[in-house]
């Protein structure tokens, strides 16, 4: 009887641990890419085309999402060139890969000089993950 | 069990994120950017002064990226434009235009979009000034490319080509030319002498006229003397000019005759006719 307990105890401890591991390892289901009429395709987040945030809204979002884990954003252009701006800051010429961003709302803009290629608000879900923004018609 | 615990610890606490391409920038203000730009400008100007425009362009470019400063990017393009101008290099001019693209992205964003206090490398008043500067560099670089391409297409012009076309003067040309000049001078002198004779003849008639008295007679005498002087000088010039000119032309023609047939074409020569003399040109057609 005593021997049975010595076997059962580790198993009983291991079960919840394994459950926690499974939850942590489980990745959110890969969302399908969604494209809008402007030729902007988003995968892993929501995209509100044309929107912009001001500094106040950005600060509010930052504060709200401060403790959450970073998502990573990739921006690609199907053709041409352009620079990527996130939350009012120039990041780099496209493509940019794995830019760490907190979940929540961020305004993203891609432009080639005076030509605006994409502008909108990216809404990253709380569980973060990989977000990919592809711009330009196929 | 120990191994499992270790795995749990790693997963539960989470590993630090690997170093990523972009991290939230520190606040960029016109003042902070201007201060950071100053040192870069100083270093770049030293490179420009030593003639290393490419190094200056690369310094401005890398620091422009690092500081997110459109002014440094425009300066990089300016250095490349100067390099293209100095070395007549199309790749340098094209690189200048390419580097301006990123500067234009930044500048139009700063002008037109929802900017942030986190990234203000220049004041809003400076944006249009820097945009004008960038556009000027772009148009100058494009003009340079066109000019270099045009120069490459145009045939090479030899400044001595005109001289070669005229070729070497034919033998005797100088003698003939000098003789022709003297001959023309002599003919002019002959004309002057003839005029003097006419004046003298008219004055002689007045002097011999019994109806011409005192003052008029004296004036006719003076006219006659002037006419005689003119006739004397004119015929003297005519004699010297015609004789010396003819001799020189004859010598020149003789010299040319000794030259090859190709060089004998269109030979000027004096012509003596019953009613006078002149200068003719003979040659093969």
How would you explain this protein's 3D organization?
The complex is a heterodimer of chains A (138) and B (285). Chain A has helices spanning 2-25, 55-65, and strands at residues 34-35, 40-43, 46-49, 71-77, 83-86, 89-93, 96-101, 104-112, 115-124, 130-135. With 138 residues, chain A is an alpha+beta fold. Chain A has a single domain (32-135), classed as Immunoglobulin-like, CATH 2.60.40. The mean pLDDT of chain A is 84. Chain B folds into two domains: 28-150, Serine Threonine Protein Phosphatase 5, Tetratricopeptide repeat, CATH 1.25.40; 171-282. Chain B has a two-stranded antiparallel ribbon with strand order 1-2. Chain B is built from nine helices and two strands, in the order αααααααααββ. Chain B has helices at 2-13, 30-49, 53-67, 70-87, 90-112, 124-153, 161-166, 173-208, 214-257, and strands at residues 267-273, 276-282. The A-B interface holds A 10, 14, 17, 20-21, 24-25, 52-55, 58, 69-70, 72, 81-83, 85, 87-93, 96-100, 107, 109, 111-114, 116, 119 and B 1, 4, 7-8, 11-12, 14, 17, 20-23, 25, 28, 65, 68, 101-102, 104-106, 108-109, 112-119.
List the helices and strands and how they pair.
The complex is a heterodimer of chains A (138) and B (285).
Chain A: H1 2-25, E1 34-35, E2 40-43, E3 46-49, H2 55-65, E4 71-77, E5 83-86, E6 89-93, E7 96-101, E8 104-112, E9 115-124, E10 130-135
Parallel strand pairs in A: 4-10
Antiparallel strand pairs in A: 1-2, 2-10, 3-9, 4-7, 5-6, 5-8, 8-9
Chain B: H1 2-13, H2 30-49, H3 53-67, H4 70-87, H5 90-112, H6 124-153, H7 161-166, H8 173-208, H9 214-257, E1 267-273, E2 276-282
Helix pairs in contact in B: 2-3, 3-4, 4-5, 4-6, 5-6, 8-9
């Amino acid at each position: 009887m005593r021997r049975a307990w010595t076997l059962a105890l580790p198993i009983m401890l291991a079960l919840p641990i394994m459950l926690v591991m499974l939850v942590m390892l489980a990745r959110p289901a890969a969302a399908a890419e969604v494209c809008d009429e402007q030729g902007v395709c988003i995968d892993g987040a929501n995209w509100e085309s044309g929107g912009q945030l001001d500094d106040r809204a950005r600060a509010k979002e930052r504060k709200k999402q401060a403790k959450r884990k970073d998502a990573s954003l990739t921006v690609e252009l199907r053709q041409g060139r352009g620079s990527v701006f996130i939350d009012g800051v120039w990041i780099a010429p496209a493509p940019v890969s794995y830019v760490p961003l907190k979940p929540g709302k961020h305004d993203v803009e891609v432009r080639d000089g005076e030509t605006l290629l994409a502008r909108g608000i990216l809404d990253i879900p709380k569980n973060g993950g990989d977000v990919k923004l592809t711009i330009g018609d196929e | 069990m120990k191994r499992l615990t270790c795995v749990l610890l790693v997963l539960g606490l989470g590993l630090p994120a690997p170093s990523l391409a972009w991290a939230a920038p520190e606040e960029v203000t016109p003042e902070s950017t201007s201060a950071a730009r100053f040192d870069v400008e100083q270093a770049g100007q030293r490179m420009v002064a030593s003639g290393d425009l490419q190094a200056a362009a690369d310094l401005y470019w890398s620091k422009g990226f690092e500081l997110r400063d459109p002014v440094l990017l425009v300066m990089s393009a300016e250095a490349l434009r100067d390099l293209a101008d100095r070395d007549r290099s199309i790749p340098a001019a094209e690189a200048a235009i390419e580097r301006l693209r990123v500067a234009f992205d930044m500048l139009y964003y700063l002008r037109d979009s929802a900017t942030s206090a986190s990234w203000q490398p220049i004041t809003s008043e400076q944006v249009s000034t820097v945009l004008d500067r960038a556009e000027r560099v772009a148009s100058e670089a494009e003009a340079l490319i066109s000019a270099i391409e045009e120069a490459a297409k145009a045939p090479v012009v030899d400044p001595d080509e005109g001289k070669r076309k005229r070729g070497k003067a034919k033998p005797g040309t100088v003698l003939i030319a000098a003789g022709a000049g003297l001959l023309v001078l002599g003919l002019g002198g002959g004309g002057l002498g003839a005029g003097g004779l006419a004046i003298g003849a008219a004055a002689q008639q007045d002097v011999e006229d019994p109806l011409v008295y005192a003052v008029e007679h004296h004036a006719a005498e003076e006219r006659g003397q002037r006419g005689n002087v003119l006739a004397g000088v004119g015929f003297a010039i005519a004699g010297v000019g015609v004789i010396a000119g003819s001799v020189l032309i004859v010598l020149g023609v003789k010299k040319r005759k000794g030259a090859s047939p190709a060089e004998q074409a269109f030979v000027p020569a004096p012509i003596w006719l019953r009613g006078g003399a002149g200068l003719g040109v003979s040659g093969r057609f």
